[in-house]
Design brief:
With 304 residues, the protein is of the alpha/beta class. 33% of the residues lie in helices and 26% in strands. The protein folds into 2 domains: 229 residues, Rossmann fold; 46 residues, Alpha-Beta Plaits. The longest helix has 22 residues. The C terminus is likely disordered.
């Protein structure tokens, strides 16, 4: 089972939930930190890294001796990564999505694809957990290929916890797509509610069962709870504002290490998710239009 932990905004406690949940389940669990621009799960799990490998994407290189400046490559590129201006071909690697279309349509075969490193994947262990995270190269903006490479290493025979990037854009979709369940972490503030609404819309479109964890639950107002009730989204867990938790976090220490009673609460969270996933699998929602499908059902639409 793959459980993605996401949030509409940063700083809500996504990594806190992901790491404590993984450690509370224990044996047979793998944590994948897909927040490749700023991974920080390792700060809490202190894994022993056993393997490191670079991840490459193809980038176009033009042989100007063969090029006739016909412009076919520029016409096919949806992202303006290659432009032909009179007798010049301009390549913008940071815009390239690595589809290879420009090289395929070139009538003179003047474009070749050169592998470009965008980051590294590190694999290891934080007993008893398996651990994977990606580190995007500074200056690179195309994180989905690195996220997909990390996801490809998921242990399909065990429980996988994915620490997703914040937000609702392409990196988030790349990290949560295909998951069996998504935990959305939020906080009871206007900002938390606004971004939760955006994240819920994304998860609904993907057809992934979803539940909410409210962090710092005793601050703010009741708007988040009212929203969840209106959208029939279960609130799985509430974590109150607690100085001990905040101090532990600042030192890279997990909740379950300073407040052991939380280990049972995270185990109960996992048991609830298991039950929801099983119930969702037994419920046939194929006849419902997407807009009527409650959290936990339906075929997700293909999103890029």
């Amino acid at each position: 089972m793959i459980i993605a932990v996401a949030s509409g905004k940063g700083g809500t406690g996504k990594t806190t939930v992901a790491t404590n949940l993984a450690k509370s389940i224990g044996e047979g669990v793998q944590l994948i930190d897909c927040d490749v621009e700023e991974p920080n799960s390792h700060l809490f799990l202190n894994p022993h890294i056993e393997k490191s490998e670079e991840v490459y994407v193809p980038r176009p290189e033009v042989d100007l001796d063969k090029c006739t400046y016909c412009g076919d490559c520029a016409k096919i590129c949806r992202f303006n990564a290659i432009v032909v201006v009179k007798k010049h071909v301009l390549v913008f690697p940071e815009l390239c999505h690595g589809c290879g279309g420009c090289s395929k349509v070139c009538p003179e075969e003047a474009i070749s694809e050169i592998p470009k490193s965008i980051g590294i994947l590190e694999q290891g262990e934080s007993h008893p957990l398996g651990f994977i995270h990606g580190r995007l190269e500074v200056g690179e903006i195309m994180s989905p290929p690195l996220i997909k490479a990390a996801r490809a290493l998921a242990n399909v025979n065990g429980v996988v916890i994915i620490d997703s990037p914040p937000g609702t854009s392409c990196p988030v979709i790349a990290s949560i797509k295909g998951s069996d369940f998504c935990i959305l972490v939020t906080e009871p503030t206007p900002f938390g509610l606004n971004d939760l609404e955006l994240a819920v819309d994304v998860v609904f479109v993907l057809g992934i069962p979803v539940g909410v964890v409210i962090n710092r639950s005793d601050i703010g107002d009741l708007a988040v709870k009212e929203f969840c009730e209106q959208r029939s989204i279960p609130i799985l867990m509430e974590i109150p504002e607690d100085r001990q938790i905040a101090e532990a976090y600042s030192r890279g220490v997990m909740i379950i290490d300073v407040l052991p009673e939380y280990k049972e609460r995270f185990q109960e969270l996992f048991a609830t998710i298991e039950q929801m996933v099983n119930n969702s699998a037994l419920t046939d929602k194929s006849s419902l239009p997407l807009s009527k499908i409650p959290p936990g059902g339906g075929e997700g639409r293909e999103l890029e």
